[in-house]
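Supplementary Methods. Inverse-folding protocol.

Structures were first reduced to a discrete structure-token string of length 199. This string, shown here, constituted the complete conditioning input.
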């Protein structure tokens, strides 16, 4: 695998199943520019916040069987976005790797901690009380972050520490993840940040 330089940390792919068709492109060294249409406006809102605050350019177009429910579209958008993120990182050379961030949204506060280790693990705690936010089941917001971490080959811990409004809690979570990713992908030394010499 070739080493990704800062100028080349981009990737695109298409994920097609019998349930969804997702096309995604990412640029890790962007400005947070987005072109996102998933067919689920609340998911678009969360992904726009993720892109903007991570300063990662994201183009993501999806069509899915939302007449069944939102699950397949949410899951496959997460998997495709994570795969593109992983591809854009390349060998993960010269990145900070570890990062954490807190994001408040009014009364809500969330902490996100990330390790771009190459080993997928997700521990997500979003104590959401409503069944739906827009047309997205709140359980699928947790599932999105789990699927994104798995396909992005990262350890991701997300904890909503307090909050009353479920929209605020969900948005604070996506913003905290964004800020942690922004710091973790930042260029550091030229070495692979691991005693193993590989991530």
């Amino acid at each position: 695998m070739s080493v990704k330089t800062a100028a080349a940390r981009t990737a695109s792919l298409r994920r097609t199943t019998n349930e969804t068709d997702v096309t995604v492109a990412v640029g890790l060294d962007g400005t947070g520019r987005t072109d996102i249409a998933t067919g689920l406006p609340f998911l678009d809102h969360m992904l726009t916040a993720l892109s903007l605050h991570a300063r990662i350019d994201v183009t993501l177009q999806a069509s899915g069987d939302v007449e069944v429910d939102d699950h397949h579209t949410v899951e496959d958008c997460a998997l495709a976005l994570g795969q593109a993120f992983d591809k854009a990182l390349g060998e993960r050379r010269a990145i900070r790797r570890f990062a954490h961030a807190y994001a408040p949204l009014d009364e809500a506060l969330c902490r996100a901690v990330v390790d771009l280790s190459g080993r997928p693990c997700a521990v997500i705690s979003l104590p959401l009380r409503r069944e739906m936010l827009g047309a997205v089941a709140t359980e699928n917001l947790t599932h999105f972050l789990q699927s994104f971490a798995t396909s992005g080959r990262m350890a991701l811990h997300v904890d909503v520490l307090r909050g009353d409004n479920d929209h605020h809690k969900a948005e604070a979570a996506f913003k905290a993840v964004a800020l942690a990713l922004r710091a973790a992908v930042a260029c550091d030394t030229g070495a692979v940040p691991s005693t193993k010499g590989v991530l």
